[in-house]
Amino acid sequence: MGNLARVGLRDFTRSAKILIITNTIYAFVLPVIDIFVASYIMRNSSDPSKVILYQLAIYVGIPITFFINGYLLNTINIKRLFSLGMLLSGISMVFMMSLKEINYFGLITAGLIMGMSFGLYWANRDYLVLSTTKDRTRNFYYGLETFIYTIIASTVPVLIGWYLMNGNGDSDSNEAVNSGYRVITAIVFIITIIASIVFHFGKYEKPKSEKFLYFKFHKLWKKMLQLSVLKGLAQGFIVTAPAMLMMKFFNSEGALGSAISIGAVIAAVIMLILGKYSKPKHRLIIFSVGLICFFLASFFNGLLFNSTGVILFMFLLLIARPILDIAYFPIQLKVIDVLSKIENRNEFSYILNHEFGLFVGRFIGASTFLVIAFFINADIALRYALLIIGILQLLSIVIAKQLLKQQETLEKETLITKNVITEENA
């Protein structure tokens, strides 16, 4: 398989390993944020539109916080900002659970706080991965990280679902279940504190204090932005769609937890193998497989729209999401590597701009659901909005192919130019 096939933990710096450990601890929080906050809203409001409104508030908060983070990095240590991002996710959940009723003001406030959490976490996480890894190790980095997350994501929902239904007294009592949610929220907050402490054992350099806000970019980056908009389309409500579908057809957090675990272990093993043995040249194939799985998930959900369709949707989605991530993130970081040197710009400027591309897609995706739910009904939105986005996502295959070809050409041209300059100076 060549040298690239034998990438392992030994190829990571100590700081990269600390980052992996931190993200592993924080991974115990993510399934709660992704799944059970949405199910909590559904249980206490029975309104899918409120779930999407909460999600939309999150997506508004993320790019705003990305932008503010660019300025904060000039004065505040990146460790503190990254840690604050993790802690805010716990604070958002505490605020949500303190609401006496699920009203719009409370939803938007909790969503904005969670958006700030994600903004600080992902803005700094993307930079930390970029600065502590090389292109040849990124397939394995994301493969390992996704493997760990998928294993955790396959067990945490089951345990939480069991606890909410059986471990907290009368599972038929809404107040008893809500009391269980509050206990879980307290545990989440403790985990974010532990993750923050562990992260501070690493050493990380902050980005250069340079201009990071640009509006004109290389044509290669415009292709990357097209990919980010399409990725954002799915993120618009794909995080909360599983919970809404499960609560609709099963009305049980226990069933929700069990369904999330179907196929998760298989997906985890696939991720580890792909991460260890795949090469940069395989990213387009991996990306395409992920997109096709996502399309099939939305297709079966739209075709059947029953409990069987939901199980098929969950199984395929569990495979699609990590496969897409293991290809997408290395593609993104490689483009940033290439263009930051050519355009002589701060890497964070690309991370920030990429987030605005995601926001546009997320806004369109969430708005598509809300418009269909408002003017027709929520069931039609749950059934067909996903299918519309699944079809549009397939365009990413063509765009990714064009992007990788342009990137390869640009790298060759840059290399030729450097060689010419070297020969002239010799």
Automatic annotation (TrEMBL):
SUPFAM superfamilies: MFS general substrate transporter (SSF103473). The chain crosses the membrane at residues 20-41, 53-74, 81-98, 104-123, 144-164, 184-204, 225-250, 256-277, 284-304, 310-331, 352-376, 382-400. Keywords: Membrane, Transmembrane, Transmembrane helix. InterPro entries: MFS (IPR011701), MFS_trans_sf (IPR036259), Sugar_transport-like (IPR052528). It comes from the Bacteria. PANTHER family: INTEGRAL MEMBRANE TRANSPORT PROTEIN-RELATED, MAJOR FACILITATOR SUPERFAMILY (MFS) PROFILE DOMAIN-CONTAINING PROTEIN. This is MFS transporter. It comes from Flavivirga spongiicola.
